[in-house]
Amino acid sequence: MQVTSPRRAPGGFPVVGIIGGGQLARMCQPPAVNLSLTLNVLSEGPDAAAALVVPSAPVGSHLEIDDVLAFAKECDVVTFDHEHVPADVLQALVATGVPVHPKPEALRFAQDKVAMRERLTALGLPCPAWATVHDEAELAAFGDLHGWPVVLKTPRGGYDGKGVRVIDAAPEAADWFARGGALLAEECVPFSRELAVLVARSPSGQAAVWPIVQTVQTDGICTEVLAPAPGLDPSLAADASQTALRLAGELDITGVFAVEIFEIPGTDGSAPSYVVNELAMRPHNSGHWTIDGSVTSQFEQHLRAVLDLPLGDVGPRATWTVMGNVLGGDYDQLYPAYRHLLARDPGLKIHLYGKGVRPGRKIGHVNVYGDDLEDLRARARHAADYLEGTVTE
Amino acid sequence: MQVTSPRRAPGGFPVVGIIGGGQLARMCQPPAVNLSLTLNVLSEGPDAAAALVVPSAPVGSHLEIDDVLAFAKECDVVTFDHEHVPADVLQALVATGVPVHPKPEALRFAQDKVAMRERLTALGLPCPAWATVHDEAELAAFGDLHGWPVVLKTPRGGYDGKGVRVIDAAPEAADWFARGGALLAEECVPFSRELAVLVARSPSGQAAVWPIVQTVQTDGICTEVLAPAPGLDPSLAADASQTALRLAGELDITGVFAVEIFEIPGTDGSAPSYVVNELAMRPHNSGHWTIDGSVTSQFEQHLRAVLDLPLGDVGPRATWTVMGNVLGGDYDQLYPAYRHLLARDPGLKIHLYGKGVRPGRKIGHVNVYGDDLEDLRARARHAADYLEGTVTE
After folding, report:
1. pLDDT (tens digit, 9 = 90+) per residue, B236-283?
2. How many Cα atoms sit within 13 Å of A282 on the Cβ side?
3. What is the pLDDT of residues A39-96, one digit of tens each?
4. Confidence of residue B52 (pLDDT cuts 50, 70, 90)
5. Is it the case that residue A392 has pLDDT exceeding 90?
6. How many CB pairs below 8 Å do chains A and B form together?
């Protein structure tokens, strides 16, 4: 891999290395420009989303120790665009002495869902009933005990609905068991909606939590975020925020991370409750609203956190902010579509990732903010649908 | 000059060329990232403010026709970081057929203050009394007619108080007259404060004007901007906004431009009035508040305007936004100072330009917004002073 030193701003400003050149790395560039920080991105290719907008974006692989070590030499701190760096590469990276955030000891709870469940359970935090299962018989026993259907997950590598299945009977999982290894079986909780708690924590222990949001999924992919979550029970909000902050401390998580939770309606007038669904140790899709909707965006905050700079104000800037994800659709000429949308809605904030269109691929998002939630939802939905080509006017 | 094609995002997105790699070009990069536009910056050197944050930033001179033409070949539209491109270079650039915004015919009114005064006077727009003067006798006659002191300006090349003098008697200008050429003499109007009107206009004629702001100058350099201008007379605001929009149309200005005006108090209870002081045909220091204080920043709007994309909402996002300019001070290690400020004020938005510190040089600005104007002014002032090293706690 060819490596050169990134040019940095004079005045003592550091270089932040990001492993992976996807949209999360890309969206760190605007706050880096403002804060005079230099990004250095280990990119999958010269046309990676972040490589299009960051001057220093060497091409290399996060799976290759040599690439990662050569890259890390030019960084003052290293963080991640994704959670897929293998444990041996992380070990070698840490051994170089360059600060790495989040640390591998924390990151493994986002990489391994069984390790996450074990730790959350040990901490007494609310989880669905769960078990590791190694064959159809163990799965059948779990389902018979906790009820069908069962949510079955591969412990590693899942995202955007991949690596997750809803199983009505044990034989449906035969193909996954045939691959070998343990699977994670979870109770299918009767949730009313999905929420996400976004937190930032710095190495010196400062932490901040944004208002809890509601996430709307379609086919396992987040399509809409409402910030804050409408009508959220204040005691649930306080408890879930405390849970996320406690997790951050107990697991020594650094940087921005998200806790995805299921809200479970109360019965007979009792208060709603929740269980933790997933952890993500990086800026998260549920936090894209913060770019336009919070005093400090998750991307600015992530840079501050991994540099152990003081964290920014996480207050909202509007009554409501609605984020709509833009997925790849039927045609690839986005520019004419976006010209139309800019004319239709002068308050729409479009964020595109410079990625080629593939059906279902996350290629951007839109944010709108204001006082009328239903109006905002309609505008965000229209814009996302128009860019996807599913509405044409 | 070595030129390569900038990598652009797939989907039909254009390349915006900017001549000059200063902070105005740099601050176009965050909205370009969001909008999936590719910037191409003709930079003074590899460490120019914009070159540090834009992947495609060839080094060349805006004074060299060959450099500018080679650069323009890789752009879908060309605009400017500054107003210093000579007329012959502009002519050659336009002859290539690539769209140039603002056009040379408009730009000359920002480059030549005498041409500007002639045109404004012909349009019947409010100006101070003015005349071109070629020697001390003509200056003395102007001063005796309109009163002393007189504001004397070089018609070209002035900025940040350079090229402007306040003259109490004609012999004080002997050195400027010795250089030859006409000077612009202007009546020293008894203004109460300085205001700025920021406008965007697209080639197809769409225009939008932000709320008028108050600018505070120290030694001829803008040090503070209050948005909107406190207590501004509504009829003056409406009239000045109309004047700026009319100018945009009459001069066929494209892109973002600023009209600097003097507010003149009414006598005996009459309404205040104003005269036009200067024009700037580019994003302007008086508009930096829009990055955090308006739905659409002047940098996003400039990109939209020069591409003839629909313009964005220019509404304010807070009751008040205060901008404080950061000037270079006594020490150059900004990073420790900024770490302190981030801790002191979690709502402070810092924008640094990646420039080396020289005393008096504009190296960044800060924005704060909220409901308490005096609190905001104190916070912005403290942050700017702290980065300059004139306060130490």
Report:
1. 999 999 999 999 999 999 999 999 999 999 988 899 999 999 999 999
2. 25
3. 999 999 999 999 999 999 999 999 999 999 999 999 999 999 999 999 999 999 999 9
4. very high
5. no
6. 158
| Closest Cα in chain B, distance from residue A266 (Å) | 37
Whether residues A350 and B35 touch (CB distance < 8 A) is answered with yes
CA distance A53 to B263: 42
Nearest CA-CA distance, residue B56 and chain A, Å: 8
Interface touch B312/A12, C-beta < 8 Å: no
Question: Is residue A328 within 8 Å of residue A361, measured between CB atoms?
Answer: yes
User: Which positions in chain A touch B8 (Cβ < 8 Å)?
Assistant: 52
Closest chain B residue by Cα to residue A366: B34
Q: How far is A33 from chain B (nearest CA, A)?
A: 6
Beta carbons of A352 and B55 less than 8 Å apart: no
pLDDT value, residue A160? 63
Residue B26, CA atoms < 13 Å, CB-side half-sphere: 28
Please list the helix, strand and coil fractions of chain A in percent, rounded to the nearest 5, in that order: 30, 25, 40
Say how far apart CA A177 and CA A188 lie, in whole Å: 20
* CATH 3.40.50.20 domain span(s) along chain B: 15-100
pLDDT per residue over A170-212, tens digit each? 999 999 999 988 999 999 999 999 999 999 999 999 999 999 9
DSSP state of B294: B
Q: Which of B13, B26, B36, B292 should we substitute to test contact with A (largest number of A Cβ atoms within 10 Å)?
A: B36
| Residues of chain B above pLDDT 90, percent | 91
By CA distance, what is A332's nearest residue in B? B11
Candidate CATH numbers 3.50.30.10, 3.40.50.970, 3.40.50.20, 3.40.50.2000; the one for domain A15-100: 3.40.50.20
- Which of A56-65, A152-161, B174-183, B361-370 is least confident? A152-161
Average pLDDT over residues A219-235: 94
pLDDT at B159 over 70: no
In whole angstroms, what is the distance from residue B163 CA to residue B173 CA? 12
Residues of chain B with C-beta less than 8 angstroms from the C-beta of A333: 11-12
pLDDT of A291: 98
CA distance, residue A27 to nearest chain B CA (Å): 8
Residue A157 tokens, joined: 């590598």
**CATH 3.30.470.20 spans which residues of chain A?**
193-388
Domain ranges in chain A with CATH number 3.30.1490.20: 129-187
Residue of A nearest to B310 (CA): A343
DSSP B310-327: PPPP--BSSSEEEEEEEE
From the list A12, A53, A346, the residue facing B311 with the nearest CB is A346
Hey, which CATH number is domain B193-388, 3.40.1440.10, 1.10.760.10, 3.30.470.20, 3.100.10.20? 3.30.470.20
Residue of A nearest to B300 (CA): A349
pLDDT at A158: 64
A129-187 is a CATH 3.40.50.1100 domain: no
C-alpha span between A176 and A181 (Å, rounded):
9
